[in-house]
TrEMBL record:
This is GMP synthase (glutamine-hydrolyzing). ATP binds at S223, G224, G225, V226, D227, S228, T229. Homodimer. Residues 196-404 form the GMPS ATP-PPase domain. Keywords: ATP-binding, Glutamine amidotransferase, GMP biosynthesis, Ligase, Nucleotide-binding, Purine biosynthesis. Gene3D superfamilies: 3.30.300.10, 3.40.50.880, HUPs. Its EC number is 6.3.5.2. It comes from Ciona savignyi (Pacific transparent sea squirt). It comes from the Eukaryota. Pathway: Purine metabolism; GMP biosynthesis; GMP from XMP (L-Gln route): step 1/1. Transmembrane segments: none annotated. One of its GO terms (cellular component) is cytosol. The keyword Iron does not apply.
Length: 671
């Protein structure tokens, strides 16, 4: 029987590889091709159906990637996801518009189960991941609406043409029954049988290492995390041990006692590592962006930090190669690079249309140049984190290594929000927030409102977003039951919305009430970014209500005292997790230092000299999407309160905050 093939046309989605994974897990072979691929090429492959991915572009403006409309005349079933659905609707004569609000996160939608693609679902109401700013406005002729949420079209279908579109992302974990929808599309609609088995990925990795390295030496960069530990173990398995030179770099941004613990753990799994102490190299390093950058320890911006760190790793490797009498051209560099590292860096290795969300240190221009010269070995580049753990288990690595929380290569350097001045351009957002929260959103307020026209206009803006009576009732209920204040924090964070990078506003919610109402806070964390588009992060500020808008920041760079303060807070937080044995209940917990000094007397205008700490416990499988851990649901509330209390006692810490943001619209890290 010939291998069945699904072609995935990649419009630059963050989740293109996840579509690939889901289809292969459903025993169907895949080929990911650029959206621009000609229909004749697709036809030549003999594919049985097509999936068009999401993407960062807008179908209705000039920068959208080209595509060949002939793909719609191949007579094979097609499923369009998000951008893919918008493209289908527009191609068949419908319209797509950028709406007044965004949806980024998990939402409920009603799906028509009489439609063949939804017929295997257990119920019509489904929790799905939506992340878009454009929506179907006029549905194309010959298509029917088969899904709706908040007044928006979430699915369209032409049963005759066997062409379907979904605004949500069935490929990701945050769409609860997404895999069922894909299975129905593959088996029932496209008539596939599922004759593909996922090849033995360990054997494929071993083969790749042997073929590339031959008898040369390979410098394996090991961080102590699961990816590079699995990589090192594979190298030892594939090669003669004398060929393998494992290097762990202490870049000066490690957690407390990190490098010592890493060397001990690696030795236990048979990886003999050379420790390179390179803190000063990193602190004083620069790189060439458009101009020579500042030295790293003075750098403010996330992308600059990342690029300097990535390039410095490469310079260290080059030095270490020379130290053993080699040049980078007669040995190989091995990294535990994963798919998320590459897609978020918009590497052309994995997508021709993706937006750069953040440059991962192991995929900078310098790394790409070495890769282009064939000097970089990355056998895990098609893996996601959970798949690496499965392979690591097969290799017999201990659970504590496999389940170790990821720690990013740039380390604490991307967990200090550096700043010299406040970022405060968003007064309109503040007004919307006040309208939404401080005036206790409530229709009855409109009739009694003393604010008159302005208040009514803003309330209309909210009603343009919160369209269903059910949702308005929920908003009334939540804003009535927990009195909140909202301030715009004068800093920015990196997020991902509609497959695009965002670097924008953070909101701080607080309350005079003694106990945080987490259900209300998490509801607001989902609602606020829908109304205030350029808010990509929502936090809760422990302690007294914060009534005053902070207008300044504590000047912050990657100085020794800043790093040691963060290192101490990070250690306190993770020690509490360990003491309560809840480390494995969450996937990762970035602890972030922000340059904000709360609780200063506005009259005497005391200088901003303290900083605050954000706790970001996160739940995910593949780190492409995920949820903030909810206290009392994913993590005991008393553990969170204990972390906040213990960190608050660290000298120089003004407040402790809790990150309530899912991915999207936020990302796991703040930078
Ligand atoms: N301190 C370090 N020393 C040597 N190599 C490193 C270091 N930090 C990162 N790397 C390299 O960069 C790659 C990506 O870094 P990353 O922080 O993701 O670590 P990891 O090994 O992938 O594990 P994890 O993601 O679970 O922390 C690693 O696989 C490793 O090859
Ligand atoms: O090796 C790395 N180099 C990097 O530059 C980097 N940036 C983020 N991360 C880790 O990647 C995962 C996803 O993080 P984000 O949701 O913030 O993109 C999370 O596990 C992050 O900790 C990095 N790992
Ligand atoms: N996730 C996506 O495919 C987003 C599609 C488009 N960029 C939008 O924002 O609507
Ligand atoms: Mg990694």
């Amino acid at each position: 029987m010939s291998t069945e093939v699904v072609v995935i046309l990649d419009a630059g989605s963050q989740y293109g590889k996840i579509i690939d994974r889901r289809v292969r897990e459903l025993n169907v072979f895949t080929q990911i091709l650029p959206l621009q691929t000609c229909a004749s090429v697709v036809k030549e492959i003999g594919c049985h159906c097509i999936i068009i991915s999401g993407g960062p572009s807008s179908v209705h403006n000039g920068e959208a990637p080209d595509f060949d409309p002939e793909i719609f005349n191949l007579g094979i079933p097609i499923l369009g996801i998000c951008y893919g659905m918008q493209l289908i609707n527009q191609t068949f004569g419908g319209t797509v518009e950028t709406k007044v609000f965004r949806e980024d996160g998990m939402f409920e939608t009603e799906l028509d189960r009489s439609c063949p693609i939804f017929k295997d679902l257990n119920q019509s109401r489904q929790s799905v991941l939506l992340t878009h700013g454009d929506s179907v406005h006029q549905v194309a002729k010959d298509f029917s609406i088969v899904g709706k949420s908040n007044g928006l079209v979430t699915a369209i279908a032409s049963n005759d043409k066997k062409i379907y579109g979904v605004q949500f992302h069935p490929e990701v974990d945050l769409t609860i029954n997404g895999k069922q929808i894909l299975k129905t599309f593959l088996y029932n609609i496209s008539g596939l049988k599922g004759n593909y088995t996922v090849t033995n990925r360990e054997a494929a990795c071993i083969h790749k290492i042997k073929t590339m390295v031959g008898k040369s030496k390979v410098l394996v960069l090991v961080s102590g995390g699961v990816d590079s530990t699995v990589l090192a173990t594979l190298c030892y398995k594939a090669l003669d041990p004398s060929q393998v030179v494992a290097i762990h770099v202490d870049n000066g941004f490690m957690r407390k006692n990190e490098s010592q613990e890493v060397l001990k753990a690696l030795k236990l799994v048979g990886v003999d590592v050379k420790l390179v102490c390179a803190a000063n190299n990193f602190y004083n390093s620069t790189t060439t962006l458009h101009v020579i950058s500042r030295v790293l320890s003075q750098t403010l911006f996330p992308e600059e930090k990342r690029k300097i760190i990535g390039d410095t790793f490469m310079k260290i490797v080059d030095y270490e190669a020379h130290a053993i009498g080699l040049t980078i051209d007669d040995c190989f560099l091995a990294q535990g690079t994963l798919r998320p590292d590459l897609i978020e860096s918009a590497s052309k290795l994995v997508s021709s249309n993706a937006d750069a969300i953040k440059t991962h240190h192991n995929d900078t221009e310098l790394v790409r140049a070495l890769r282009a010269r064939g000097r970089v070995l990355e056998p895990l580049q098609d893996f996601h984190k959970d798949e690496v753990r499965i392979l690591g288990r097969q290799l017999g690595l201990p659970e504590n290594t496999l389940m170790r929380h990821p720690f990013p290569g740039p380390g604490l350097a991307i967990r200090v929000i550096c700043a010299e001045e406040a970022f405060l351009l968003g007064y309109l957002i503040v007004i919307k927030l006040k309208n939404l929260i401080i005036y206790r959103y409530n229709n009855s307020m409109v009739s009694k409102s003393k604010s008159g026209h302005r208040f009514t206009v803003l309330l209309q803006k909210i009603h343009a977003v919160i369209t269903s009576e059910e949702e308005r009732e929920m908003l009334r209920k939540y804003t009535d039951r927990f009195q909140m204040k909202a301030v715009l924090l004068p800093i920015k964070s990196v997020g991902v919305q509609g497959d695009c990078r965002t670097y924008s506003y953070v909101v701080g919610l607080s309350s005079a009430e003694a106990k945080p109402d987490w259900e209300t806070l998490f509801f607001m964390a989902k609602t606020i970014p829908r109304i205030c588009h350029n808010v990509n992060r929502i936090t809760y500020i422990f302690g007294e209500a914060v009534n005053d808008q902070i207008q300044d920041v504590t000047p912050t760079i990657l100085s020794f005292n800043v790093l040691s303060t963060l290192r101490q807070c990070d250690n306190i937080a993770h020690s509490v997790l360990a003491q309560h044995n809840v480390v494995n209940k969450i996937s990762q917990m970035p602890v972030v230092l922000i340059p904000l000094h709360f609780d200063r007397d506005t009259l005497c205008r005391g200088p901003s000299c303290q900083r605050s700490v954000v706790l970001r416990p996160f739940i995910t499988n593949d780190f492409m999407t995920g949820l903030a851990a909810q206290p009392g649901k994913h993590i005991p509330e008393e553990v969170v309160l204990e972390m906040a209390k213990n960190i608050k006692s660290v000298p120089g810490i003004s407040r402790v905050l809790y990150d309530l943001t899912s991915k999207p619209p936020g990302t796991t890290e703040w930078e």
